[in-house]
Amino acid sequence: MSVSEPESAVPALALDDVSVVRGGKLIWSEGTFEVPAGGIVAIIGSNGSGKTSLLKVILGLIPAASGRVQVLGKSPGEVNEFIGYVPQNYASASGEAIRVCDAILLGLNGTRWAFGRPTREERRRVAEVLDAVDAGALALRRLSELSGGQRQRVAIAEALVADPKMLILDEPLASLDLRNQREIVQLLDRLNKDLGVTIMVVAHDLNPLLGVLNSAIYLLDGHAHFDTLDDVVDESLLSHLYGTPIQVVRTPQGALYMRSTG
Length: 262
Description:
By secondary structure, the chain is of the alpha/beta class. The chain has eight helices and eleven strands. Helices cover 30% and strands 26% of the residues. The longest helix has 18 residues, at 178-195.
């Protein structure tokens, strides 16, 4: 990125003829697209299509077998300090007995929290991000005491505490009831608008997210694709993607939802 080039002009993710191989098996190939910065992007595909492999490529955990990948204008792994990642198994990865405030500190300064008192600035930042996700009252509670929706808010706070430019969430709505799904989606929409952070969401069910998504990366027929939401929410494409007939319905209020008719 040149000194004069605005940060928003750099794509959040750029792939040029990328393929991914795991265990000697080709997972997907011919990935050539750019994801603009600043949007909310779904990552979708059938089971085994390579969604997890894509996340690992973005994070620099596995190399692309061919082609060129850039994340926030740099090579994968070079910008992980600017990426907040929320895994599916957040609580088990953090430790059930850990307090919420300490989990957030872990996201801020790695393992250093265990070896000394946090600074006043660190405590201020922890309180700030917990308030940003409407979880300030949870600071002294342990993860084991939280509901699924509360844990997801804490996970998002931990991912946000280092002020990332990209937020990646792996199935953040899994196992949540409808009310908590709606509240987490509303939270992601607000964070995207208030902070300008690019949000990538791995999702099995697009319906809860349709009102906030801009676009989607979809893995289909062994290839990686990207398009705007209007072009992805297509009955023929989605039926092919999920392997079952999908109907796209628009309500009188203009909202979209998908349903299986198979």
